[in-house]
Specification:
Layout (H helix, E strand, L loop, with lengths): L8 E5 L2 E5 L1 H10 L15 E6 L10 E5 L6 E6 L4 H8 L11 E5 L6 H10 L5 E6 L1
Antiparallel strand pairs: 1-2, 3-7, 4-5, 5-6, 6-7
């Protein structure tokens, strides 16, 4: 046994080893995607978030997103404050708050893939509305 074995299997290579948590990987696969580094949690029903680019924070959506391994989605990597999304989260119910690890599957009712959704977000300006489908 390797001294770096944990609750998963140890893969030894060269001078170090990598511990793979098999149970976590299975949970992620069954949950439909996401990062294996994110802690598994219950899936919420999909919901929509509508943000109007207005007010003091109109320039700052507050979402750091990136394309997922599956190019159909964007993954929320971080949420910044103060921002439009932090203002939304302050008013939203717990079940409808946007969280890191959430998937954005459509922007303005267009499920066009991660790169195209990024373009829609980046091209929006003051006074425009962005509608996100969150899963």
């Amino acid at each position: 046994r390797s001294n770096c074995e944990g609750q998963g299997d140890a893969i030894e290579s060269g001078q170090g080893c990598e511990v793979v948590d098999i149970d976590m990987l299975k949970a992620v696969e069954q949950g439909g995607g996401g990062s294996p580094l994110a802690s598994p949690r219950r899936r919420r029903p999909p919901f929509e978030v509508e943000l109007v680019r207005s007010g003091v924070h109109w320039r700052t959506l507050g979402l750091l997103v990136s394309p997922d391994d599956n190019p159909k989605y964007l993954i929320v990597d971080d949420i910044w404050e103060p921002s439009l999304i932090s203002e939304y989260n302050n008013e939203a119910s717990e079940a409808q708050k946007v969280r890191t690890g959430d998937m954005i599957t459509a922007v303005n009712n267009e499920a066009v893939g991660g790169e195209a959704m990024l373009e829609i977000i980046q091209s929006s300006g003051k006074g425009q509305t962005l509608k996100f489908k969150i899963e």
